[in-house]
Amino acid sequence: IEAVLIDLSGTLHVDDDPTPNAVEALKKLRTTNKKIKFVTNTTKESVSSLHKRLEKLGFDIQKEEIYSSLTAASNYVQEKQFNPFYIVTDDARKDFPANSTDRQHDSIVIGLAPDKFDYKNINDAFSILHKNNEAQLIAIHEGKFYKTKSGIAVGPGCFVKGLEYSTGVKSICIGKPNEYFFKSALPSGISAENSCMIGDDPMDDIQGARNIGMKGFLVESGKYQPEQYKAKELPAADGIFKNFAEAVDFILNTSS
């Protein structure tokens, strides 16, 4: 393994608490010559705010090492020259270009924004999609739920699917498990076959990584809920570990 892609929320930390021995495990991984990239669907805060929070938790992470679905979505908006209506947090909005006041909204960008999920915003988004047949519904990600200190909380996926149902417009998912997202996140010059992903989401992290040929190591420290999958077919993983630290130990031991 030449490159390790690492999920953040639920893998390195849960809210403002590192997962067990995660800070020390990352330091051990840094002693190798493996390339490291942090890939996240976190959309409640800008990359700058996220980086500052991770530093406060004790993690040795450079801002440039973080590849966020916000970054991918912002790149997509600029590439297409869209003028979106945003349903994102005020902090996440900082990662996107300014709106044009001379043009009508031609797209919707939606992420995890608990304070923005009210009837007015959802209805405004519905109206834009309903009136403009060419308007795009851009989902930064479609997560069903995520892990918080108090337990599992609903993700943005249900709001995205609600808009799809009401308008008949199929969303474009930018973040994990999108293949474009994973391919863009890989360090330059390193193939997917020589890379691995460590994450807590069986679909977005593990299946997404394996779809492009990477190895996928699942951790149980975040949203992964074994009891909820008993009646479902889980995507195959190359290893299941209690937490990030155990996954790192496995990678280092098998690489030696």
Unreliable sequence segments:
none
Oligomer: single chain
How many structural domains does the protein architecture include?
2
Number of helices: 9
Structural class: alpha/beta
Cα Rg: 18 Å
The amount of helix comes to: 25-40%
The secondary-structure element order is EEEHEHEHEHEHEEEHEHEHEEH
Q: Beta-sheet strand percentage? A: 15-25%
Strand order within the widest beta sheet: 5-4-1-12-13-14
Number of strands: 14
EC number: 3.6.1.1
Main location: cytoplasm
Subcellular location: Cytoplasm; Nucleus
InterPro entries: HAD-like_sf, HAD-SF_hydro_IIA, HAD_sf, LHPP/HDHD2, STAS_dom
Task: Characterize the structure shown.
The protein has 256 residues and is of the alpha/beta class. The chain folds into 2 domains: 3-41 and 179-254, HAD superfamily/HAD-like (Rossmann fold), CATH 3.40.50; 71-173, HAD superfamily/HAD-like (Rossmann fold). It has 9 helices and 14 strands. It has a 6-stranded parallel sheet with strand order 5-4-1-12-13-14. A 4-stranded parallel sheet has the order 6-7-8-11, with helices on one face. Strand 9 and strand 10 form a beta hairpin. Helix 1 runs parallel beside helix 9 and helix 5 (119-131) packs across helix 6.
